[in-house]
Write a structure and sequence with these properties.
2 copies of one chain form a homodimer. The first copy, chain A, has a 5-stranded mixed beta sheet. In chain A, helix 1 runs parallel beside helix 2 and helix 3 crosses helix 5. In chain A, a hairpin with a 7-residue loop joins strand 2 and strand 3. The C terminus of chain A is likely disordered. In chain A, 44% of the residues are buried. By secondary structure, the first copy, chain A, is α/β, with parallel strands linked by helices. Chain A contains 5 helices and 5 strands. Chains A and B meet through helix 1 and helix 2 of A and helix 1 and helix 2 of B.
Chain lengths: 165, 165
């Protein structure tokens, strides 16, 4: 199973591609950050994000797209702008026929670290351990995308076990 | 000049296509409402909105896409959801190479009626008069899309005159 995890934003959209093999540890396939040109109009920024997502999906054929689900924006205006980025990310998944899963930040922390109040540093350490990395994925936004992908890997494993057992 | 005006929403997205000829009155080409299936997942609703916008752009080859710019959502959550719809609408414009213009609700009222505090009924009456219609475009969301398209027609005319004069 291959999962593309995305941490949306119009300035920086972090992503991580994680493989969950039939047996053995999770594997980090790729991670990075999409940074649309700061001076571009919003519509063009969204085009950059959408096109990069399409390219990632075409390259890795993920079984699922996992996206952070933030309802905690500081105000309506920043929520609106964030919604634009999430909109084109969900669209990229829908158009490619990839299942879309959404996770709240607390769920990501809880799944990866075991505590909904975990710090960024705690998440990075667990991401390193789970993926057997020598250093945390850089920059932070990429690490967030990886954590979301890991969350989906772990949650769907739990689900499968629950169904089987 | 042909303008596609859009009033975004995940439940109902109203649109209107208005032609501004070189001479003579504005002309309503088409208007309607995009209603994604209520039971669908958000990603699929966004796909419906995006695909319909793509179809409208392919059919009418608008010179501009005019979108309502709402920063007045009642709370962060509704702003976020509205942002998703606006995101895929702006994306449809960007990908088709259509210029995107954004107007605040007050600008639309001010352009169409001449008062930023105009009521819905006042807007509908002026839309009917400007487009020489026997009745207001139905339903209301379609009329809102038409008003936004008209706003762009009128604003860009003012702009042109200002440049020439």
């Amino acid at each position: 199973m291959i999962v593309l995890g995305v941490d949306p934003g119009t300035v920086r959209t972090g992503y991580g591609v994680v493989e969950r093999p039939e047996a053995g540890p999770y594997r980090l396939v790729e991670c990075g950050v999409i940074r649309p040109p700061a001076a571009s109009a919003l519509a063009l920024k969204l085009d950059v994000i959408f096109t990069e997502l399409e390219t990632l999906i075409a390259r890795h054929h993920p079984d699922a797209l996992a996206v952070e689900n933030v309802f905690m924006a500081s105000n309506a205006r920043s929520a609106l702008v964030l919604g634009h980025a999430r909109g084109v990310i969900l669209l990229a998944g829908a158009r490619a026929g990839v299942a879309v899963a959404e996770y709240a930040p607390r769920e990501v922390k809880s799944a990866v670290v075991g505590a909904g109040s975990a710090t960024k540093v705690q998440i990075q350490r667990m991401v390193m351990r789970l993926l057997r990395l020598k250093s945390a994925p850089e920059p932070t936004d990429a690490a967030d995308g990886v954590a979301i992908a890991l969350t989906h890997c772990m949650r769907s494993r739990t689900f499968k076990r629950a169904v089987v057992g």
